[in-house]
Structure to design on (444 residues):
């Protein structure tokens, strides 16, 4: 009997990359590859990469060092770099790191079997062609998550916003929406397999815009409703919203359907209109705050999270304090915070100076992290005494006697297991909290 080639895949970056790796595995399984979680057993190693910040790429170079050592002992091993960094660096990757056999961009995954076959016979290969159509709509992703409770479903690819700091439009190409029928089918299949939650993902979900042959349109709020109606017991999340495009329609759809989770990730990047303009974000501080007001009025129990960046080109102390004041005004439940990292060939790298000292970027980042810690603590304190429906995702890391799950607001709750199981919806009263989690007790 012929033994199947073993594929080991490692994923860095955003949720989109997680979803893409599942598409890649599906394509390769179809061609007879078998997944392995043991890197030493692999015939093929693929690393799905991110370019968003310099340090994301550094991490991948570090991994390539490790793969080189493995290949020394096993010369027949094939190493592939796929995803955003593959798209950005193209053949340079092979030139700089001889360990790499194939380089494949985010829109070229259907070519992987062919490139791997050529690599086996000693031919290195690169395919970084971006597409205006590819959405991998017909491919049923092979789920790589552990719990089989929650899955990402990609609803669009690419991005048309040209934020001046951002590499994404260059490495993921133009925006395109996926056929809603294929989205509904994928979600229905997940439900049949026992999944309890889906997260609809795209770089800017609010600009989802499908047109069929008869020119009938489906907007994001319509798609969201279609997915919510599949089954009231299926939780629906989505990410990422863009402040310039988040419509009241979407908020009203969220309020109409209890199974659409009450959490919005709304990246602000900065609280200063002057900086937002330099970033080409397409909104002002006032516009952003107006969207926050709409969320708070239409969805009073909705949590809000954000992305923030410190030290963008020309950011003054005053701009920085406007970011701090925006945070205080919104009271984010959680936030992802970064130092600006200049990316080659973006508008900012060509036209603006990366002129904020590293030490100042770091100090400002520390200030926003410290403030966010205060705000997150405040947000958790407000949950004390309240009861939430928690979808159980697994056992607590510390003890098998405890389960963990998330509230609709995307907050993690740990509580005593009793007779509950993974996948159950449990009413949990919050009785305490640590810096990262809520602690509760199930109520019948
Ligand atoms: N430097 C630092 N952070 C960045 N992000 C995007 N581009 C950069 C960059 N060049 C951040 C933004 C975005 C998140 C995904 O990553 O905050 O929302
Ligand atoms: Fe995701 Fe952007 Fe990183 Fe690509 S560069 S993996 S799109 S975060």
């Amino acid at each position: 009997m012929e033994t199947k080639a073993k594929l080991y895949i490692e994923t860095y970056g955003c949720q989109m990359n997680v979803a893409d790796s599942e598409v890649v595995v599906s394509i390769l399984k179809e061609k007879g590859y078998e997944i392995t979680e043991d890197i030493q057993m692999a015939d093929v190693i693929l690393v799905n990469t991110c370019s968003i910040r310099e340090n994301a790429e550094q991490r991948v170079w570090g991994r390539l060092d490790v793969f080189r050592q493995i290949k020394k002992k096993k010369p027949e091993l094939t190493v592939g770099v796929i995803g955003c960094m593959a798209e950005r660096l193209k053949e340079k990757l092979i030139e700089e790191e001889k360990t790499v056999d194939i380089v494949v961009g985010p829109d070229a995954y259907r070519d992987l079997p062919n490139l791997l076959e050529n690599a086996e016979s000693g031919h290195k290969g690169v395919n970084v062609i971006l597409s205006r159509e590819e959405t991998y709509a017909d491919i049923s992703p092979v789920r790589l998550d552990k719990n089989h409770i929650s899955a990402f479903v990609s609803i669009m690819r690419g991005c048309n916003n040209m934020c001046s700091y951002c590499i994404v439009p260059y490495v993921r190409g133009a925006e395109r929406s996926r056929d809603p029928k294929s989205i509904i089918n994928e979600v229905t299949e997940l439900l049949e397999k026992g999944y309890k939650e889906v997260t609809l993902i795209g770089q800017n979900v609010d600009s989802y815009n499908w047109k069929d042959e008869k020119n009938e349109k489906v907007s994001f709020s319509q798609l969201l409703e279609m997915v919510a109606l599949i089954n009231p017991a299926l939780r629906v999340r989505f990410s990422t919203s863009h402040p310039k495009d988040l419509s009241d329609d979407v908020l009203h759809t969220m309020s109409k359907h209890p199974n659409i989770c009450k959490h919005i990730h709304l990246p602000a990047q900065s609280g200063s209109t002057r900086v937002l303009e330099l970033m080409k974000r397409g909104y002002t501080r006032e516009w952003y705050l107006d969207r926050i007001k709409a969320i708070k009025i239409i969805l009073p129990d909705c949590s809000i999270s954000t992305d923030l960046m410190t030290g963008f080109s020309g950011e003054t102390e005053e701009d920085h304090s406007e970011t701090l004041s925006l945070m205080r005004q919104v009271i984010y439940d959680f936030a992802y915070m970064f130092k600006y990292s200049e990316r080659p060939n973006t508008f900012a790298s060509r036209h603006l100076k990366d002129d904020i000292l590293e030490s100042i970027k770091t100090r400002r980042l520390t200030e926003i992290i410290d403030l966010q810690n205060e705000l997150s603590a405040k947000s958790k304190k407000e949950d004390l005494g309240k009861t939430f429906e928690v979808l159980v995702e697994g056992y607590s890391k510390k003890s098998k006697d405890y389960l963990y799950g998330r509230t609709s607001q995307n907050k993690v709750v740990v509580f005593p297991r009793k007779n509950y199981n993974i996948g159950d919806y449990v009413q949990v009263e919050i009785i305490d909290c640590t810096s990262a989690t809520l602690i509760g007790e199930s109520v019948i």
About this structure: The two ends are 55 Å apart (CA to CA). Residues 358-381 form the longest helix (24 residues). The longest strand covers residues 387-395.
